[in-house]
Specification:
single chain, 797 residues, mainly alpha, two-stranded antiparallel sheet, 40 helices, disordered N terminus
Length: 797
């Protein structure tokens, strides 16, 4: 399953098995005890020399040792399997042997996954471990890849049933024995070959599950353009297969994360970007392009994402997949949740579903069901949620990729947004009982819950869709678009061009658009909800870019500002992530908007409330600095306007009066510069540097830049550390030039969000970095010679 921010970026649960395996084996530690045979096999497995397979022993010897060590006859079976799987074999006997081996491993794997395994003296050496140690994994890889070998111009064939057995055994071994999945991941030709097995419906789910696990631990990302006939393969998938294939795509189109915090610094990212430019597109970018070149791919994803529960596959095919889930242990917990729901509803509806043991089926391959089988609605919904999770994740990643505009155009054309709007109440944000949604071993608020993950993935998609793109107005319906036009008309300002250009046939239908629906659930969200962060981010993305008075008023009229202030002040929110998202949203909502400041002052109507608000701001400037920037910019604009309404707000608003004081500005400026350093700059805290620059740019406009620099110098001396702040600021500005004076979207974002031309940003930085100590606006003029430290090399190799 694909997971939220991220968040992106990788599917949920990646890499979980190696840690889980170590814990489950406990004191065993993987080191054999009876004799030295297993030690030699293990050594051979690591080195590739010496004893590596069962075929290197006689059957008599293996039988004798099996009596002592209780290997369940697995080495002998592998000996027979090797003998019956040669190139000229008809594989009939080979398949019979696989049928003997399979239950020995599957029961052990089922117990492992369901946490029922008990380590006893009799099972010191698990069957899966013995199977792998005696060369079983390598032998099955060779058998599976027999069709790639040609004899006299003809390629060998093995049955789907035999492939299915091989895949089942391999998967169970991966589950229970640490290191097997990584070894398979190193066999790149085998991984590519596995994709070809997905052409058969009989082996599709088993293959997809094994590939997903292998790709989850693979060090280097696979390239989809190396998969033979990728376009044909994907085009021939039915909708159910395509949805499951998205689990694999989640790994192949997301940029790999090193997991090292240092790599998230802007210094490291810049260095990585320089390196990437010389290497060309990344594997993830190549894979995204490969998928987008497949005819109808995005259209099919949009149909899957917006499909109603009633339009999903019929009862029979779903029951077949549930049987597969029962067999394929990766989905055991999902099945656990589904079956619990089914049992609850069956008691009320007197509908029954009879699930046979794995492998029991009728001639058509479907499980036996009672004559009155009815699939409970909750199971249909959970089924659809599991699909949509993967599909929304893939669409979200594509929306953030290099082909963003192409994906945006297709998503709009295929009506993804109105389709999601129609599903909002009944599926995405449906009312539910907690018991129906909690997976085994988790609680109802756990982010692993499919229901919760779907909501987060949906919000991430909205955020990516709206961010700095004119298609954001597709989140409204026709009536709401007319409301935006009426707001502009009443304010006597031009209508937003993007609103006028919006294709009305592609917008949401119904009484409310998707944005309005989101606002409604946002205001009802409990104070401790993990959704608050994502909801605020999604709404904020609608406001990002060039400030639109009409957009702001649309949201203000729906009580958004009061809701945010309630959460910040009255509920005294403690979560840093939620606070940051609310401060960012509040800043975008209030920027340059006199009506918003009036509403703010009406809500924060006592000194006590205002002090709580300031306490929240001061609790972390990294979280609140975007709001400070917006208020500072708004104050500057209001002070230059001649308007009675503006004058009234300036005289009454506590927040504007507070920010207008020079000591207040200096206090914030000092702290903003002091909490960041070049080596610790990230995408999250670089906003502190830009907010500092906004304060100084506005001071420069008023010819007060020397005053502000002189005050910073005094504050340094008062802290008994002369030069420490201004040297740091000098280094930060040098980095700013290096970072922003390259072609990327950051400079455009700075200009649009501040309404200050980027040329003025560059000029101000250049003036501050002027090396002339006689310049009253240069930083070096305020750093005494003994404390000068401005030439430090901060580049990262």
């Amino acid at each position: 399953m694909a997971a939220a921010p991220a968040a992106a970026g990788s599917g949920a649960g990646r890499g979980r098995r190696s840690a889980a395996t170590v814990a489950a084996w406990g004191g065993w530690g993987g080191r054999p005890r009876p004799g030295n045979i297993l030690l030699q096999l293990r050594q051979g497995q690591l080195t590739g020399r010496g004893l590596v397979r069962a075929v290197q022993f006689t059957e008599t010897f293996l039988t004798e040792r099996d009596k002592q060590s209780k290997w369940s006859g697995i080495p002998q079976l592998l000996l027979k399997l090797h003998a019956t799987s040669h190139l000229h074999s008809d594989f009939a006997e080979c398949q019979n042997i696989l049928k003997e081996i399979s239950p020995l491993l599957s029961m052990e794997a089922m117990a492992f996954v369901t946490e029922e395994r008990k380590l006893t003296q009799e099972t010191t050496y698990p069957n899966t471990y013995i199977f792998d140690l005696f060369g079983g994994v390598d032998l099955l890889v060779e058998i599976l890849m027999r069709p790639t070998i040609s004899i006299r111009g003809q390629k060998l064939k093995i049955s789907d049933e035999m492939s299915k057995d091989c895949l089942s055994i391999l998967y169970n071994t991966c589950v229970c024995t640490e290191g097997v999945t990584k070894r398979l991941a190193e066999k790149n030709d085998f991984v590519i070959f596995l994709f070809t097995l997905m052409t058969s419906k009989k082996t599709f789910l088993q293959t997809a599950t094994l590939i997903e696990d292998i790709l989850g631990v693979k060090k280097e990302m696979i390239r989809l353009d190396e998969v033979p006939n990728l376009s044909s393969l994907v085009s021939n998938f039915d909708q159910q297969q395509l949805a499951n294939f998205c689990r694999i795509l989640a790994v192949t189109i997301s940029e790999m994360d090193t997991g090292n915090d240092d790599k998230h610094t802007l210094l490291a990212k810049n260095a990585q970007q320089k390196k990437s430019l010389s290497l060309g597109p990344s594997a993830a970018e190549i894979n995204q392009a490969a998928l987008l070149s497949i005819p109808g791919f995005v259209e099919r994803l949009c149909k899957l994402a917006t499909r109603k529960v009633s339009e999903s596959t019929g009862t029979a095919s779903f029951l077949q997949e549930l049987e597969e889930w029962y067999t394929w242990l990766d989905n055991a917990l999902v099945l656990d949740a589904l079956m619990r729901v089914a049992n609850e509803e069956s008691e009320h509806n007197q509908a029954s579903i009879v699930f046979p043991p794995p492998g029991a089926s009728e001639e058509n391959g479907l499980p036996h069901t009672s004559a009155r089988t009815q699939l409970p609605q909750s199971m249909k919904i959970m089924h659809e949620i599991m699909y949509k999770l993967e599909v929304l994740y893939v669409l979200c990643v594509l929306l953030m990729g290099r082909q963003r505009n192409q994906v945006h155009r297709m998503i709009a054309e295929f009506k993804l947004i109105p389709g999601l709007n129609n599903l909002f109440d009944k599926l995405i944000w449906r009312k539910h009982s907690a018991s129906a949604l909690v997976l085994h071993g988790h609680n109802q608020n756990c982010d692993c819950s499919p229901d919760i993950t779907l909501k987060i993935q949906f919000l991430r998609l909205l955020q990516s869709f709206s961010d700095h793109h004119e298609n954001k107005y597709l989140l409204l319906n026709n009536q709401e678009l007319n409301e935006l036009s009426a707001i502009s008309l009443k304010a006597n300002i031009p209508e937003v061009e993007a609103v006028l250009n919006t294709d009305r046939s592609l917008v949401c239908d119904g009484k409310r658009g998707l944005l309005t629906r989101l606002l409604q659930v946002m205001k009802k969200e409990p104070a401790e909800s993990s959704f608050r962060f994502w909801q605020a981010r999604a709404v904020e993305s609608f406001l990002r870019g060039t400030t639109s008075y009409a957009d702001q008023m649309f949201l203000l009229k729906r009580g958004l500002l009061e809701h945010i202030l309630y959460c910040i002040v009255d509920s005294e929110c403690k979560s840093r992530d939620v606070l940051q998202s609310y401060f960012d949203l509040l800043g975008e909502l209030m920027k340059f908007n006199v009506d918003a400041f009036k509403r703010f002052n009406k809500y924060i109507n006592t000194d006590a409330k205002f002090q709580v608000f300031l306490k929240q701001i001061n609790s972390s400037l990294v979280d609140s600095n975007m709001l400070l920037r917006c208020v500072t910019l708004s104050l500057d604009r209001f002070e230059n306007q001649v308007d009675m309404k503006v004058a009234e707000v300036l005289s009454e608003c506590r927040l504007l009066a507070y920010i207008s004081q020079v000591p207040t500005q200096m206090s914030f400026l000092f702290r903003l510069i002091n909490i960041i350093h070049v080596q610790t700059l990230t995408q999250e805290n670089v906003s502190c540097l830009n907010t500092s620059l906004v304060i100084l740019m506005l001071a420069r406009r008023k010819e007060r830049l020397p005053l502000y620099l002189r005050l910073l110098q005094r504050m340094e001396h008062s802290k008994k550390y002369p030069g420490f702040l201004l040297n740091n600021f000098h280094n930060l500005l040098r980095f700013w030039q290096q970072h922003y004076l390259h072609k990327d979207k950051d400079s455009t974002c700075l200009e649009n969000s501040s309404c200050i031309s980027f040329s003025y940003w560059k000029e101000t930085v250049s003036i501050l970095l002027n090396p002339d100590r006689q310049s009253p606006s240069a930083l070096v003029s305020y750093i005494e010679e003994p404390y000068m430290d401005i030439d430090r090399d901060f580049t990262e190799e």
